[in-house]
Amino acid sequence: MVATSSHQAPSCTLGPVLLLASCLIASLLGGCKASTGPAASKPTTLSESPSTPSLIAHKPGPERVMRSTRGDWGLGHAPYMPTGAMPVYAFMHGMGDTPAAECPWFESVTRTRGYLLCPKGNAAYGNGFAWTNDRAQVRERFDGAWTATDNLVDYHVARPTRRKNTLMGFSNGAWAAAETALAQPGEWQQLVLIAMKVSLDATKLRGAGIERVVLAAGDHDGSAHSMQSEAKKLNAAGLPALYLSLGKVGHTFPRDMPSRMETALQWLESPQNEGDRRVTQN
After folding, report:
1. Where do the DSSP E strands lie in the chain?
2. Side-chain half-sphere CA neighbours of 7 within 13 A
3. 66-70, 245-249, 259-263 — which is least confidently predicted?
4. Is residue 244 within 8 Å of 253, Cβ to Cβ?
5. pLDDT at position 32
6. Would 68 be classed as within a structural domain?
């Protein structure tokens, strides 16, 4: 996925050699469609200037201070109004893209819930980065993310909790998120996997501490049918799962992606999850 602006929906481009076959398969099946995304300027929550300090304070509203951090590992944001222990949401971007291009789509739905961490893919690809199965390198990215979170905590009353932490990913990042959850047992309790054919094992996921799973895709994405089937399979195995339609789009984010993610997070937060559900939003 190569972003054409910092707040455009991610899309796929096929290079001559792929680090991972996963995105190629998703692209060929789903038909990657570029999207112009919301008519929004570059996010003001984080500057990517090389001279930018590693810790930046922002004032999005009266008596609200949002702090962001960036580094070789990626970028992250602290909650707007922290209170007590708050969960962590981590998002793994798609192939050929960057955290700066995809992370903004998740800021509005996480800013009052907890910390948002967007690690950078461990391998260069095209004009961006991708995720590979090198677990040591992926672990290094997440170590950087957790260290950055500790730095953000210095400015907040809220501390990150290791309960109800949510790992999210799009396309190649969804595959990587599922693998990372298994490789980092106990760190993540919830998964949100977007637009990628994945084969999930409910027993292994539960063994790693995963309690709930959301699978989402556009109706015209090649992974949609597979992800619906995975949700049914997980529910049948006793692991609560939800399939969420992203509407009439292909391998990309819809313009109303934040509201759709709000639906996903509300379901994850609900005290009693209704398994074997499918949510469709036109």
Report:
1. 55-61, 64-71, 74-77, 85-86, 88-92, 115-119, 123-125, 128-130, 159-160, 166-170, 190-194, 212-217, 241-245, 277-279
2. 18
3. 66-70
4. no
5. 38
6. yes
Is residue 39 included in any domain, yes or no? yes
CA 215 – CA 229 distance, rounded (Å): 10
CA–CA distance, 37 with 9 (Å, rounded to integer): 5
Single-letter amino acid, residue 62: P
Q: Give the span between the Cα atoms of 251 and 11, in whole angstroms.
A: 7
In-domain check, residue 137: yes
Domain that includes residue 116, residue range: 21-279
* Radius of gyration (C-alpha) of the chain in whole angstroms: 17
* pLDDT given at position 197: 97
Q: How far apart (Å, rounded) are the C-alpha atoms in residues 237 and 139?
A: 29
- pTM of the entire structure? 0.76
At 149, is the pLDDT very low, low, confident or very high (cuts 50, 70, 90)? confident
Q: Give the sign of the dihedral formed by CA 61, CA 65, CA 70, CA 73.
A: negative
- Stretch 2-8: mean pLDDT: 41
- DSSP letter, residue 56: E
- Number of independent structural domains in the chain: 1
End-to-end CA distance of the chain: 24
Residues, the chain: 282
Q: How confident is the model at residue 280 (pLDDT cuts 50, 70, 90)?
A: very low
- The total of other beta-carbon atoms located within 10 Å of residue 23's CB is 28
| 3-class DSSP assignment, residue 103 | coil
Which domain CATH number covers 125?
Answer: 3.40.50.1820
- Of residues 76 and 82, more confidence is placed in 76
